[in-house]
Amino acid sequence: xxxxxxxxxxxxxxxxxxxxxxxxxxxxxxxxxxxxxxxxxxxxxxxxxxxxxxxxxxxxxxxxxxxxxxxxxxxxxxxxxxxxxxxxxxxxxxxxxxxxxxxxxxxxxxxxxxxxxxxxxxxxxxxxxxxxxxxxxxxxxxxxxxxxxxxxxxxxxxxxxxxxxxxxxxxxxxxxxxxxxxxxxxxxxxxxxxxxxxxxxxxxxxxxxxxxxxxxxxxxxxxxxxxxxxxxxxxxxxxxxxxxxxxxxxxxxxxxxxxxxxxxxxxxxxxxxxxxxxxxxxxxxxxxxxxxxxxxxxxxxxxxxxxxxxxxxxx
Length: 315
Description:
By secondary structure, the protein is α/β, with parallel strands linked by helices. The chain has 13 helices and eight strands.
């Protein structure tokens, strides 16, 4: 199936039909193949994402080179499978990285100016929208701050960091952004919460109602405890890690989330498999044999995530 040149081709359908699409981060070929293999088995559309750091890594320090290397790799593989695959820049913080992704042929870019004041965020996002739309691709932006809001946080504290639905409506209308990541209580990384996670679904539903565009959940890894325990069994030291439970992810999709970012879960899965392989076969000198075990764990994690989001057999 041809590479999807504009991510909205995938997300518009997901928004109309009410399911979530997995957006999976990569740094290299191993993760890309592992993700695609899982999506092909589930007959699901996927979005491959790269961070600014991944672009720099793939380019041996040059993010312009890295963007091209990653885009060429994704496009080549997308042409050889029969599911829709798009490529997205995750958390682009400046025009330079956004331009590198656009020039390389990415399907969409995120401009993350959420740390800035509303008007400054709006100004930068609008400029990126103008450039990206001229190139025929779509744009993601973010409102609010990802801080891992928990049960015991006061209403005033929640309002200070989470998205304001009325501001989201104004932001979407004035910027022309295609899909939006509203802060509703998640956080990045493996250590999102000390207590139980509490996402603000009422706020999410209101944003969806007012904007009518695909919405994105960042910080959405579940940090599956069985995988963490396996990694720790073979030498990892991942202590106290917590994520977003599967049932919470399902509720988020129900209330309007259509793109669900996943990175940490894939890293933990790969390391669990890699550490076990190194332990079980210490005489092996071919790294490909070790990588294969880690890749299979990633594939399993991707398949599980796709089923949770309801995108199996949507390709």
